Amino acid sequence: MVELGFGFCFTRTNLPTVMPELPHQELFDRIRGSCVLALPQSATKILELAKDPDNGPPEYAKAISLDLGLTTQILRFVNSSFFGFRYKVTTIQTALSLVCIRTIRNFVLWNAVFALLPNQSSGTFRLKLVFQDALRRGIFSKVIASYLAGLDPEELFVAGLVQDLSIPVLAQAWPKEYAELLPRSRQEGVRLSQLEEARFGWNHAVAGAYLVEAWGFGPEFARTIRNHIRCDFDHADSKETLVDAVVALSALLPSAVDDYWTDGDEFCSVFHKVVRKPALNVPSPPMLDRLLAEVDTRYLDLLAIIATPPPVMSLCDFQKIYLASIE
After folding, report:
1. Would 256 disulfide with which of 19, 113, 132, 314, CB 3.0-4.6 Å?
2. Nearest residue to 281 (alpha-carbon basis) of 150, 153, 143, 148
């Protein structure tokens, strides 16, 4: 398999070879039997181009222009306040010359990934809510990475985005069990991974790591997905540990279905470990309220691009309620 960094594989046969959890064979068999391993043609073409670093805006523009819907989405993305250009961008080639190709590629990928997820409009969850949570966690990971030395915000955006995408797949494979576990997690304030471990002997982080390797992400990326349920980051000294800690921190954000920040205490604890002074790109740690406000603004911008209504509560709203509860 060609290593594409954050690229995906192109066939259902390029499955992970480095996952050691063979006792979870039923889990991996069900993922292999799902419909989520084959990406749309537009995404696979973009990833083919990514194999050759000599490919530039003309090559990518030609491939993207064959998909009118994707072209429209990308132009809306580039013309949004997310980038803040003073004039309207009207062609894909211009968009690619103004915005990092990797950013456009990641935009294509997260659209493609969500197109694959099973859309259960009733029952345990709605795909719209899964998407809202994933996008907010991706943006949070990107924003906080911009303050930390040595981290790639685009890398962290994708990791934050896809960390929980195994949950809709698992809920489709085990509908009865997840119809019980998902509401229990919210009602009892217990992390879903703990309930999964008790019921199955594995959790969605293990499933997510397997899934992203099946999509062609590298083993380091899969490690980050596997570790996103951790909170023990007292010594986030290496780049790899810091990447894992940022994504784990984003996993502690409240969900769109919540009315209270259940993991607020843990979040604040991990946040202060992550933004230690030696790790910073800036002279002093970012204030949490300002950081959350920045995430909220970027989040609303992207939701507007894809015509998705925002959740009822912003991160700033959750923070105010949380702070009021501990005073």
Report:
1. 132
2. 148
Q: pLDDT for 107-151, tens place per residue?
A: 787 777 677 666 655 455 566 788 889 999 999 999 999 999 889
Total number of residues shown for the chain: 327
Q: For residue 277, what is the DSSP state?
A: G
Of 222, 219, 111, 231, which Cα lies nearest the Cα of 166?
Answer: 222
| Structural tokens at position 291 | 């950081």
The rounded distance, in Å, linking the Cα atoms of 164 and 323 is 27
Chain centroid to Cα 159, Å, comes to: 5
Residues facing residue 148 across a β-bridge: 280
Give me the pLDDT at residue 87, please: 85
Give the ranges where the chain is alpha helix by DSSP (H): 25-32, 41-50, 57-65, 68-78, 92-98, 101-116, 127-145, 153-162, 166-173, 175-188, 192-200, 204-214, 219-226, 239-250, 264-274, 288-305, 315-326
Tell me the torsion sign for CA atoms 190, 194, 196, 200.
negative
Q: How far apart are CA 326 and CA 21, in angstroms?
A: 41
* 194: nearest Cα among 128, 266, 269: 266
Closest CA to 131 of 307, 260, 289: 307
Q: Name, in order, each residue with C-beta under 8 angstroms of 232's C-beta and a sequence gap of 6 or more.
A: none
Give the domains, in start order, of the chain with CATH numbers. Answer: 37-116 (no CATH), 120-326 (1.10.3210.10)
Range 147-182 burial, b when 16+ CB lie within 10 A, else e: bbeebbbbbbbbbbbbbbbbbbbbbbbbeebbeebb
What one-character DSSP code corresponds to residue 235?
T
When pLDDT is averaged across residues 66-93 and rounded to a whole number, the result is: 83
